[in-house]
Amino acid sequence: MTRRIVNTKDTCAGEPRIEGTRLTCSDVVLTLTVGQMPLEEYLEVYDYLSRDDIETSVSYCATKMCMLENVIAFCHGCSLNTSSDYVAVEFESLEDEGKLDVWRHANDLLRKL
């Protein structure tokens, strides 16, 4: 059974995540794209997840469902997160202002899945 994408204020600061985990949609997308981890390796590391869980997470991000669902918080490092207290330093060289258009990476990834 595919896990839902949820957001609760007490887990991951309210960022959209895979139900029953602390893996945010951004974590999944960025690890599989910027982190260059192949899907099969990711599924070995996170052996409690299914391919459908990953596809659900990537699709959620690609379609910017977080905007439609009015989530508690946008994912860390995403350009939708306008909070001034967070800058994704490790990705600064990739996109302006240190934040990524994570949904664009998700769209690219979704085409490959």
**What value does the Rg take, in angstroms?**
13 Å
- Average pLDDT, rounded to a whole number, is 84
User: Looking at CATH, which topology would you report?
Assistant: Arc Repressor Mutant, subunit A
| Strand order, largest beta sheet | 1-2
Distance between the termini: 18 Å
> What CATH architecture label applies?
Orthogonal Bundle
Residue share in β-strands: under 5%
Helix fraction bin: 25-40%
- Full CATH superfamily name: Winged helix-like DNA-binding domain superfamily/Winged helix DNA-binding domain
CATH C-level class: Mainly Alpha
What's the number of structural domains?
1
Number of helices: 5
Q: List low-pLDDT spans.
A: 86-97
What spatial form do the alpha-carbon principal axes imply? globular
Pfam families: DUF433 (PF04255)
Protein name: DUF433 domain-containing protein
InterPro entries: DUF433, Homeodomain-like_sf, WH-like_DNA-bd_sf
Would you mind describing this structure in some detail?
This protein is mainly α. It has one domain: Winged helix-like DNA-binding domain superfamily/Winged helix DNA-binding domain (Arc Repressor Mutant, subunit A, Orthogonal Bundle). It is 38% helix and 4% strand. The chain has 5 helices and 2 strands. The longest helix has 12 residues, at 51-62. The protein starts with a strand and ends with a helix.
